């Protein structure tokens, strides 16, 4: 696709075009001279097409971004952070409604950082995966997150992908993301999940979550699995959300964010000196694929926490692990038992029964590595 672009940065202090919203004490208002929404700042259109125009706003503040998200909610506005999901959508048009407004956050200052704040560590929403993987603070205090970031995609992807984008990324389902919206699945308002009767060997669930509503896609975000193990808190422009409450069946987004609500940072709670953690994943092409299976394990003075990816629509926390372990030293026999316990009640589809023993094996490996 060749793109024609016209770019005019939104600068509300020295704006040549007097049709933009006016920022007043943190409140976004429409100026009295603002004309129809069709007069935009950055047009991205497929050459020769008049029906595929997308308007791209370079916002300078969170207030501006929230304003445009609300103003263009009917036009399926999308946030651009790293832009990986957005580029794919613009190229193959898998959504029911192609986005007509792209809200770029990359020019907003103060959203890229990793800093110690008393006993917590805070990570800005636009911090890149590569920065997380290379951070000495994360490597020393939260190795499970550093490992997950280091195993995420290629170096090029890690240099583009942001923390907030990874948390909010679209599911990686070949029916949902089929070009030109070929499959009107449950997630798009249809009646069925095509994976049930179709090809379902790789990226589909083996464990039904309460909120799946018949969708068999899985959470394949490396960072989300690690953050769930760490009990991270997501801070937005409106509230604080424990990551355990972030994912939902609000299709197609799959999360609880409101229109106009934007993630600003992630807070990692303090860890004791005794805490150990590890992240492992299985992918067909180890160098860059989404994980078909992943496991994050954390061990501290309170016990062991196991979170699985690639098995359910949301990060799957294995409940009851410490009732099995009961404070015992981790032996191979006990690790095998916990691995088998982790996939109890699994309900694989016709072609992905292979996931059950592989998940069990990865849990065992992770526990043995923790010791």
What is the topology?
Elements: E1 3-7, E2 22-24, E3 27-29, E4 42-46, E5 54-58, H1 62-71, E6 78-80, H2 84-92, E7 101-104, E8 114-117, E9 120-124, H3 129-134, H4 136-141, H5 143-150, H6 155-160, H7 163-167, H8 222-229, E10 233-236, E11 240-242, E12 263-268, E13 276-282, E14 293-300, E15 303-309, E16 316-317, H9 321-325, H10 332-342, H11 355-370
Parallel strand pairs: 5-7, 6-7
Antiparallel strand pairs: 1-4, 2-3, 4-5, 8-9, 9-12, 10-11, 10-12, 13-14, 14-15, 15-16
Give a quick rundown of the structure.
The chain is of the alpha+beta class and 371 residues long. It contains eleven helices and 16 strands. The protein has two domains: 102 residues, no CATH class; 209 residues, Uridine Diphospho-n-acetylenolpyruvylglucosamine Reductase, domain 3, CATH 3.30.465.
Given as residue ranges, the uncertain stretches (5+ residues, pLDDT < 50) are: 1-51
Distance between the termini: 52 Å
Strands side by side in the biggest sheet? 1-4-5-7-6
State mean pLDDT (0 to 100 scale): 85
Known CATH architecture of the largest domain? 2-Layer Sandwich
Bin the strand percentage. Answer: 15-25%
For the sheet with most strands, the description reads: 5 strands, mixed
Report what the structure shows.
The protein is an alpha+beta fold and 371 residues long. It has 2 domains: 3-104, no CATH class; 114-168 and 217-370, Uridine Diphospho-n-acetylenolpyruvylglucosamine Reductase, domain 3 (2-Layer Sandwich), CATH 3.30.465.10. It is built from 11 helices and 16 strands. It has a 5-stranded mixed sheet, with helices on one face. A 5-stranded antiparallel sheet has the order 8-9-12-10-11, with no helix packed on it. Helix 5 (143-150) runs antiparallel to helix 8 and helix 10 (332-342) crosses helix 11 (355-370). The N and C termini lie far apart (52 Å). Mean pLDDT is 85; it is low at 1-51.
């Amino acid at each position: 696709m060749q793109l024609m672009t016209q770019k005019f940065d939104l600068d509300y202090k020295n704006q040549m075009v007097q049709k933009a919203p006016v920022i007043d004490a943190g409140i976004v208002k429409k100026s009295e001279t603002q004309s129809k929404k069709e007069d935009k700042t950055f047009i991205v259109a497929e050459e020769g097409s008049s029906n595929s125009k997308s308007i791209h706003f370079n916002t300078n503040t969170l207030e501006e971004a929230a304003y445009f998200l609300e103003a263009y909610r009917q036009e399926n506005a999308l946030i651009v952070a790293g832009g990986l999901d957005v580029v794919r959508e613009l190229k193959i048009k898998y959504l029911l409604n192609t986005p007509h407004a792209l809200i770029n956050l990359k020019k907003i200052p103060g959203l890229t950082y990793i800093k110690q704040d008393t006993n917590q560590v805070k990570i800005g929403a636009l911090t890149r995966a590569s920065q997380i993987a290379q951070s000495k603070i994360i490597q020393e205090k939260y190795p499970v997150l550093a490992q997950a970031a280091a195993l995420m995609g290629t170096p090029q992807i890690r240099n583009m992908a942001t923390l907030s984008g990874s948390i909010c990324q679209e599911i990686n389902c070949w029916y949902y993301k089929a070009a030109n919206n070929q499959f009107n699945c449950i997630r798009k308002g249809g009646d069925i999940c095509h994976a049930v009767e179709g090809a379902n060997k790789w990226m589909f669930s083996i464990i039904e979550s309460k909120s799946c509503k018949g969708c068999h896609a899985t959470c394949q975000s490396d960072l989300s699995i690690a953050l769930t193990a760490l009990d991270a808190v997501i801070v937005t422009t409106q509230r604080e959300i424990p990551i355990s409450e972030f994912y939902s069946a609000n299709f197609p987004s799959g999360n609880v964010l409101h229109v106009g609500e934007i993630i600003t940072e992630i807070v990692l709670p303090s860890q004791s000196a005794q805490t150990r953690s590890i992240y492992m994943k299985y992918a067909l092409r180890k160098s860059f694929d989404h994980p078909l299976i992943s496991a994050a394990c954390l061990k501290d003075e309170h016990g062991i926490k196991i979170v699985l990816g690639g098995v359910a629509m949301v990060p799957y926390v294995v409940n009851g692990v410490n009732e099995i372990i009961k404070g015992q030293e981790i032996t191979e026999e006990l690790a095998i038992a916990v691995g088998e316990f982790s996939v109890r009640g699994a309900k694989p589809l016709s072609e992905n029964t292979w996931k059950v023993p592989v998940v069990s094996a990865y849990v065992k490996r992770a526990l043995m590595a923790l010791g």
